[in-house]
Design goal:
160 residues; seven-stranded antiparallel sheet; two-stranded antiparallel ribbon
Length: 160
């Protein structure tokens, strides 16, 4: 009993030095929950890393798409920035050719620009999406498996 009491009194001064949780900390390293399969074909996981508010008017979402997954055509009412942190995928704006995007690439998509972005046929992709979350994404048209496959075939041939 005496030892327990002595130990308690010895530890009291250190209680004031413990780390407080005055900060909001999140991690982009977490995969996040599996996304509901509403605007894509395949498998995807979303981690809402940072949600905008009155002071900070943008969101950061980490998205991971398994290989051979497609995301539908869509647009945002504000610009969007994609930062590819792993893997390889495709990006295309309406009226332009699709391109391969890979780890380290940063893409800026202008406001109201219809586009799609997703994993390649052979690789998963993980990216951070920065965008104004106060206005919903406008989904404009499904991206068919046939169209995705034709893009993959063309980009694969150009790589060789």
């Amino acid at each position: 009993m005496k030892k327990s009491t002595l130990l308690f009194f010895l530890l009291i001064p250190f209680l004031g030095f413990t780390q407080k949780s005055d900060y909001t900390v999140s991690s982009y390293l977490l995969e996040g929950p599996k996304a509901p399969n509403t605007h894509y074909i395949g498998e995807a996981w979303l981690n809402n890393v940072l949600q905008g508010d009155a002071e900070l008017n943008f969101n950061i979402t980490k998205a991971t798409f398994r290989k051979n997954s497609t995301l539908d055509w869509h647009k945002h009412s504000t610009p969007q920035v994609l930062i590819v942190v792993d893997g390889e995928g495709y990006y295309q704006e309406r009226g332009k050719d699709a391109i391969i995007i890979k780890k380290g690439d940063v893409i800026r998509c202008g406001k109201d620009t219809e586009h799609w972005h997703t994993a390649s046929k052979e690789n998963l992709i993980t990216y951070l999406a920065l965008y104004d979350g106060s206005k919903p994404t406008v989904w404009t048209e499904p991206l068919t498996q046939e169209y995705y496959d034709s893009v993959a075939k063309k980009l694969s041939a150009e790589k060789k």
